[in-house]
Design goal:
Oligomer: single chain
Largest sheet: none
Distance between the termini: 56 Å
Shape: elongated
Structural class: mainly alpha
Order of helices and strands: HHHHHH
Number of strands: 0
Radius of gyration: 33 Å
Number of helices: 6
Strand content: under 5%
């Protein structure tokens, strides 16, 4: 059951990520109306200065440049390529967390089973069998880059002899 719950949580996190990536913020949101109003005042002031300067030079109103105020309702997720990168990164992290969670759940289950089994073992031989089981570290030793280089060189030497 815990494994299914972990998978469900991973699916929820993926959905939350998709929701964040697709979210669009409206310019009319009351949380930033004050900031937009101040920007419009500053914009109007700047455009008035432009009109005054160019008007003094005789530039007709219909030919004058002006500043405009725009709204981007999204951040980085506006770019489809960036959105894809963020999606890939999120999926990789969620997958890594899920694998860790599943391994932790499995280890906890095995630990409980081992404790239950050990409690039922009454002979010294049975207890010795249980303690003689190899650990993951014993079964899967660390990989050393130096050892890989030595192995590569050894294989190259064998090929050159043949």
């Amino acid at each position: 059951m815990a494994k299914n719950q972990a998978r469900q949580r991973a699916a929820e996190l993926t959905a939350e990520t998709e929701e964040q990536l697709s979210r669009v913020f409206a310019a009319e949101d009351e949380r930033w109306q004050s900031a937009i109003a101040k920007a419009k005042i500053a914009l109007d002031s700047a455009n008035n200065k432009i009109r005054e300067a160019l008007g003094a030079e005789g530039v007709p109103d219909n030919l004058m440049p002006s500043l405009t105020l725009g709204w981007r309702g999204r951040g980085e997720s506006l770019d489809p390529q960036r959105r894809g990168e963020l999606r890939t990164l999120a999926r990789a992290r969620i997958d890594a967390h899920l694998k860790t969670a599943l391994a932790t759940i499995e280890k906890s289950s095995v630990d409980v089973q081992t404790q239950l089994l050990a409690a039922g073992l009454t002979t010294g031989a049975a207890q010795a069998f249980l303690t003689a089981m190899p650990t993951p570290e014993e079964l899967l030793p660390a990989v050393s880059v130096d050892e890989l280089a030595v192995e590569r060189d050894r294989e190259a030497n064998l090929r050159s002899i043949q």
